[in-house]
Specification:
single chain; Rossmann fold; three-stranded mixed beta sheet
């Protein structure tokens, strides 16, 4: 089976390439090449170039596309609105249309951020999205198009892990702890983080056992950013650190952030007959990836 992965040098893309290359022929694309692996064919180009994207797809003709390409910096999306729309929606639609034409599968990695965060309980798949920033608006725009295709799958998630560019949330946390910098973390911003390799394992299962439609894939619990990092610090046994509890409303972001992004993952667990990781499992995986 031929699998195409966009955004393949990002955190999730890298994880998927490492895992899936063991069983499948992988065609990876991103602006820059990640590590060299056997059974992986790289092609680096700007995915917003329609001609280059179509040419690549025509050459590869994948059975499955996993669309991971994204601008994950929410504030940058506010500054680069057209670029965000191009990557999250327009290029995704080109790839989707190609799969429609060849009657093959399309997996789109979306975000918990499509919700406005005002709900008190965890969000279910049938809750109505109300995105409040450009990143989420462009992701939801793509969702509305993708869901119409019978062989498509949308996974809403919130991943944590480390990447080679040291730009992720957890990279920032570990770097701050290493250099004894104060951490200001939100006590009123909740999420359901899943470790990046755990998400890759779920996707591998889905490739073997195809499912279609819309699902939430996250940890089985929700937690504030403040409490999550506190638990991580305890697990890592850091001796000296300063962590300040603050409200998300105290911070002046360019992009608005929702307060509650807890996801209900029961639909996916029932469908795949699996048990998704807990917060403790997620933190243990982060610790093991450092050690």
């Amino acid at each position: 089976m031929k699998i195409a992965i966009t955004g393949a040098s990002g955190m999730l893309g890298t994880s998927l390439v490492k895992l899936l290359r063991k069983k499948y022929k992988i065609f990876a694309t991103s602006l820059s090449k990640s590590l060299d692996y056997t059974n992986v064919e790289w092609e680096c180009f700007d995915i917003t170039s329609q001609s280059l994207l179509i040419s690549w797809l025509e050459k590869v003709r994948p059975e499955v596309i996993i669309y991971c390409a994204a601008i994950v910096n929410l504030d940058l999306c506010e500054k680069e609105k057209e670029q965000a729309k191009s990557i999250h929606f327009e290029s995704a639609k080109i790839a989707l249309d190609f799969q429609k034409k060849t009657k093959k599968r399309f997996i789109y990695i979306s975000s918990d951020g499509v919700f406005d965060g005002t709900k008190k309980l965890s969000y279910k798949e049938n809750d109505i999205p109300n995105p409040i920033n450009i990143y989420a608006k462009t992701k939801y725009l793509a969702e509305q198009e993708i869901i119409k295709y019978s062989q498509s799958l949308i996974l809403r998630t919130n991943i944590v892990g480390f990447n080679k560019n040291s730009t992720s949330f957890m990279d920032w946390v570990v770097r701050s702890l290493k250099y004894d910098k104060e951490l200001n973390l939100f006590t009123d911003a909740y999420f359901s983080p899943i470790y990046v390799d755990s998400l890759s394992n779920v996707i591998e299962k889905i490739i073997k056992m195809p499912i279609y439609g819309l699902y939430h894939c996250a940890s089985s619990e929700s937690i504030s950013k403040y409490d999550f990092v506190k638990k991580f610090i305890e697990e890592m046994n850091y001796k000296t650190f300063t962590i300040n509890p603050i409200s998300i409303e105290e911070f002046d972001f360019i992009a608005r952030r929702p307060k509650n992004l807890a996801l209900d993952i029961s639909k996916l667990e029932r469908k795949l007959n699996i048990e998704l990781p807990s917060i403790s499992d997620c933190i243990m995986s982060l610790r093991n990836s450092i050690n």
